[in-house]
Amino acid sequence: MNAHPAFDLFSVGHSNIPADRFIGLLRAAGASAIADVRSTPFSRRFPWFSGPRLAARLREEGLTYSAFGDSLGGRPRDPNLYRDGVADYEAIAAQPEFKAGLDRLLSLTPAHRVCLMCAEREPLDCHRCLLVTRAFVERGFAVGHILHDGSIEPHVRTEERLLAFGGGSDASADLFASGHGERLAAAYRRRARAVAYRA
């Protein structure tokens, strides 16, 4: 029954996917619970992804829904967690509330195969990858990103794509970074600056 035993956690972006297809992707991956990391669990354009409605549909399908946007969301309420008006993922990751949110989410894992959910289709456009998944990977967990074609991309491959993005005014700084870890951190920083929520 464990469809993808190589992964401890999954992530998915709901985007504009039909509800039935979304459920199918979860089932194919073997996920049994959604951890909604949207700061505001609401969608006007795709109302089946609004929190209460999604929770009810998942319950009908025998799946669990939990909201984590208060602690793991990408739109912090604290103005000190913005730099030049852009959400600062590194500052957010250092907050006790964020770390407590990670721990609370992990408390679901003994009973469920958890999938982080946010809105953006592409993992590298979303804080669920650039902030939350990164934190779980740093804790030693294997995360797979469920893509809309049904494939699952290991986070290590996502990081390879992140490094390949390059570009930006400070891309040349990668040449002077002393190792892979520093290049990767710079790539995370650059991508987060490009896609993070702007107040």
Which keywords apply here?
199 residues; alpha/beta; Protein-Tyrosine Phosphatase, Chain A; six-stranded mixed sheet; two-stranded antiparallel ribbon; 8 helices; 8 strands
Give me a quick take on this structure.
The protein is an alpha/beta fold and 199 residues long. The protein has helices at 19-29, 51-60, 69-72, 89-93, 96-106, 127-138, 155-165, 180-195; strands at 9-13, 33-36, 64-67, 82-83, 86-87, 114-118, 143-146, 152-154.
Strand line-up across the major sheet? 3-2-6-1-7-8
Name the quaternary structure: single chain
Reading the helices and strands in chain order gives EHEHEHEEHHEHEEHH
**Tally of strands:** 8
The assigned structural class equals alpha/beta
Distance separating the two termini: 43 Å
Provide the residue-averaged pLDDT. 93
Helix segment count? 8
Total domain modules: 1
**Any idea of the CATH class?**
Alpha Beta
Radius of gyration: 16 Å
Task: Explain what the structure shows.
There is one protein chain. With 199 residues, the protein is α/β, with parallel strands linked by helices. The protein has a single domain (9-156), classed as Protein-Tyrosine Phosphatase, Chain A, CATH 3.90.190. Helix content is 40%, strand content 15%. It has 8 helices and 8 strands. It has helices spanning 19-29, 51-60, 69-72, 89-93, 96-106, 127-138, 155-165, 180-195; strands spanning 9-13, 33-36, 64-67, 82-83, 86-87, 114-118, 143-146, 152-154. The strands form 2 sheets. It has a 6-stranded mixed β-sheet, with helices on both faces. The chain has a two-stranded antiparallel ribbon with strand order 4-5. Residues 167-175 have low confidence and may be disordered.
